[in-house]
Amino acid sequence: MLENEENNREALASNYKSIIKLLGEDPEREGLVKTPERVAKAMMYLTKGYSQDPQKILSSAIFKEDYKQMVIVKDIDFFSLCEHHMLPFFGKAHVAYIPNQYITGLSKIARVVDVFARRLQIQERLTTQIKDCIQDALKPLGVMVVIEAQHMCMQMRGAEKQNSVTTTSDFTGAFNQAKTREEFINLIRNK
C-alpha cells in the first residue's frame, strides 16, 4: 500500500472514531473498536474510482473493426454513493454505441461504469460521464446510456419511498434519431 493511502486510511479512521463518539456511542466498546478502521477501508474501496482513469481502461482494448451496428452491454450492476447524503444508490446501467471503425472490449465498458460509480456521485452526472468517456475514447457514430437505480437516501430517510426507481438517459450522434433510441430501448427491455 502506498504511504499516502495508508495516511489517508488512518486519517479517515480517526475521523470515524470521532463520528462514533458524536453519535453518543463508545468507540472503545468491543463491537466498535475496529469499526473506524473497517469503515475507512470500505470508504476507500467505495471511492476508488478517483484513482482510476476510465479513458485508459477503454484505450487498453481498442480494435479496428468494420462493424457499424449497435453494440449493447446491458444490465451492468453498479453501486455508488450519493454525494448529498453519502448513502448508497445502486442499479443497472445499459450502454450502447455504434462503432465508427473501432470497437472496445465489452468488459471495458462495464469497468468504465464502475470507475465513475466508485466516486461520490449523482445519477445524472454518472450517466453523462459514462456517455462522454465512451464518445471521447472511441469516437463512435453515437453513444446512449440509460441508468435505472434505487436511492437509499430516498428509501431510508426523507421521502421513504422504498419501491421508487430513478431512470436517467443521455445520448449522442445517431441516437439523436428517435428510431435509433427506440431500437435501443426495445433491446434493453427484452429479457
Supply the key terms:
191 residues; alpha+beta; 5-stranded mixed sheet; 7 strands; 43% helix
Structural write-up:
The strands form two sheets. A five-stranded mixed β-sheet has the order 5-2-3-6-7, with helices on both faces. Strands 1-4 form a two-stranded antiparallel ribbon. Helix 1 (3-22) packs across helix 2. The protein is built from seven helices and seven strands. The chain is elongated, with a radius of gyration of 20 Å. Strand 2 and strand 3 (88-98) form a beta hairpin. The protein has helices at residues 3-22, 35-46, 54-59, 106-117, 123-138, 152-155, 178-189; strands spanning 62-64, 71-82, 88-98, 102-104, 120-121, 142-151, 166-171. With 191 residues, it is α+β, with helices and mostly antiparallel strands. The protein is 43% helix and 25% strand.
Could you estimate the helical fraction of the residues in percent?
40-55%
Low-confidence segments, given as residue ranges, are none
Secondary-structure-derived class = alpha+beta
Q: Helix tally? A: 7
The major β-sheet equals:
5 strands, mixed
Number of strands: 7
Order of helices and strands: HHHEEEEHEHEHEH
How widely separated are the two ends?
Answer: 42 Å
Question: What is the gist of this entry?
Answer:
With 191 residues, the protein is of the alpha+beta class. Helices cover 43% and strands 25% of the residues.
